[in-house]
Design goal:
- By secondary structure, the chain is α/β, with parallel strands linked by helices.
- It is 41% helix and 18% strand.
- The protein is globular and about 55 Å long.
- It binds adenosine-5'-triphosphate (ATP).
Length: 369
C-alpha cells in the first residue's frame, strides 16, 4: 500500500534524525518492490516556524497532518523560544496535534538492545516493556489553565475521566495481547501506575482500570503506586510487560525507563488515537549537538518502524508490519555489532554513519527474509 506521511523535521537535531529515518523508509520502499510505498510531504513546525510566522504550526500544515495516514516528527521546541509566561513556544505544535487529533495514547517502548549500555548491573532476564501514557488528560490537561493568586499561590487541576481512563487502559490490554509477556516470566501483564493512596483522581483511575481488567481475564493485572514503580523499574525491570499511567506519571517514568536502556537516543514513541498517529523520538531538539552530525538517529528510525507497524495493523497490510520488523531487526544488528553506536552510546559513529549501518543491516535482513 502507499501511505501519505507528513514529515515534520522541526528544530535542532530534528531535521538530521528525520533525514536518516526517511533514508531507511525509502530503502524499505525499494526492498519491498513498492509493496510498501510513501508519499512524503514536509512541513515546517516548531520554534523556527513560530519565530518566522508567529505560529508553531500553520493551519495548512495542520490540515495536511489531519489528512495524512501518519506523521513522523523530529523534535519541536528550542529553550530560548518562549511565550511571555515561560512556556516553550515550539512545543505548541505537538500539543496542537496531540489534542486536536485526539492522540490520546502515548506508547513508549523501553527495550534494552544487546550492545547498548545500561547503568543497571542486573537487568535480569532483560528489559522489554511498554509504557502506555494517557496523553490528553491528567495534570497536563491544565496546560492552558491553572491559576495564580497575587504572585503568592499557584494551582493546576488534574482531569481524570471515566471515558478517558477506559480507552487508555483498553489500549494497554490490546497491546499486551500482541506481545509475548514480561521477560522474567513470560506472563502477559498490565500494571496500572497511580497514586491511589493520596489523591481521589488516582483512586478513580485505578478503580476504572480494575473494571476494565475484569474484561481481560487472559492478561494479568496489578496496580502499583508511582513511587514504588520508579523503584521496581530500576530493581526488577524484567518483571514488567505493559504499564499504563496518567499523563505526567507516564511522562516521567518513560524518561526513567529510557535511562535504563541507553538513553533518549534509542527511545522511540508513538502518539496515537483512533484515526491518527504521530511518531517521534522521546528526545527533544538537543540544541547542544544540533548541526554537528552527532545526533543518534536510532530513536527516530525506531519510531518509523512503529509507524509501519501501526499503519500495517490499521490497514490489514502485512507487508507494512513485516517492514517494521525489518527495521527493528536492522537496528538490533547495528547496535549489537557496534557499527551503529553513536557517542551517546559509547561509540564513535556520526548520524549518517549510524544511518548507513542501519541501511546495510536492513539490506542483509531483507536478503535473509
Ligand atoms: P525536551 O524538553 O524538549 O524533551 P530536553 O530538555 O529533555 O528536551 P533533549 O533535547 O532531549 O532535552 O536533550 C537532553 C540531552 O540529551 C542533551 O544533552 C542532548 O544532547 C542529548 N540528546 C538528546 N537526544 C539525543 C540524540 N538523538 N542523540 C544524542 N544525544 C541526544
Amino acid at each position: 500500500m502507499a501511505y501519505d506521511v507528513s514529515l515534520l523535521p522541526g528544530d535542532g537535531i530534528g531535521p538530521e534524525v528525520v533525514g536518516e529515518a526517511v533514508r531507511v523508509l525509502e530503502r524499505v520502499e525499494s526492498a519491498s518492490g513498492g509493496e510498501v510505498a510513501f508519499r512524503f510531504e514536509t512541513h515546517e513546525i516548531g520554534a523556527g516556524a513560530w519565530r518566522r510566522t508567529g505560529e508553531a504550526i500553520s493551519a495548512e500544515a495542520y490540515a495536511s497532518c489531519e489528512a495524512a495516514d501518519a506523521m513522523l516528527l523530529g523534535a519541536a521546541g528550542l529553550p530560548d523560544a518562549r511565550h511571555p509566561d515561560g512556556r516553550e513556544a515550539g512545543s505548541d505544535a505537538m500539543f496542537r496535534l496531540r489534542f486536536g487529533l485526539d492522540l490520546y495514547a502515548g506508547i513508549r517502548p523501553v527495550r534494552l538492545y544487546a550492545g547498548c549500555p545500561s547503568p543497571l548491573s542486573t537487568p535480569g532476564a532483560g528489559i522489554d516493556y511498554v509504557i502506555v501514557r494517557e496523553n490528553v488528560e491528567g495534570l497536563y490537561a491544565g496546560r492552558h489553565g491553572g491559576s495564580r493568586v497575587e504572585g503568592e499561590v499557584a494551582a493546576d487541576t488534574s482531569i481524570i475521566t471515566r471515558a478517558g481512563t477506559r480507552r487508555i487502559v483498553e489500549q494497554a490490554f490490546a497491546l499486551a495481547s500482541t506481545r509475548s509477556g514480561a521477560p522474567a516470566d513470560g506472563v502477559s501483564r498490565v500494571t496500572c501506575v497511580d497514586k491511589a493512596n493520596v489523591l481521589a483522581s488516582y483512586a478513580f483511575f485505578r478503580a476504572v482500570a480494575t473494571e476494565v481488567a475484569a474484561g481481560h481475564p487472559d492478561v494479568a493485572f496489578e496496580a502499583v503506586y508511582v513511587d514504588a514503580a520508579a523503584l521496581y523499574l530500576v530493581q526488577r525491570p524484567s518483571t514488567f510487560d505493559v504499564l499504563v499511567a496518567e499523563n505526567m506519571f507516564g511522562d516521567i517514568l518513560s524518561d526513567l525507563g529510557a535511562g535504563t536502556v541507553g538513553g533518549l537516543g534509542v527511545s522511540p514513541s508513538a502518539d496515537v488515537g483512533e484515526r491518527h498517529g504521530l511518531f517521534q523520538a522521546s528526545h527533544g531538539s538537543a540544541p547542544d549537538i544540533a548541526g554537528k552530525g552527532l545526533a543518534n538517529p536510532i530513536a527516530t528510525i525506531l519510531s518509523a518502524a512503529m509507524m509501519l507497524d501501526w499503519l500495517g495493523r490499521r490497514h490489514g497490510d502485512d507487508a507494512a508490519v513485516r517492514a517494521g520488523r525489518w527495521i527493528d531487526d536492522a537496528v538490533a544488528t547495528t547496535l549489537e555489532d557496534g557499527s551503529g553506536l553513536t557517542r551517546d552510546l559509547g561509540g564513535s559513529a556520526g548520524t549518517t554513519e549510524c544511518g548507513d549501518a542501519v541501511l546495510r543491516a536492513l539490506d542483509a535482513a531483507v536478503a535473509a527474509a
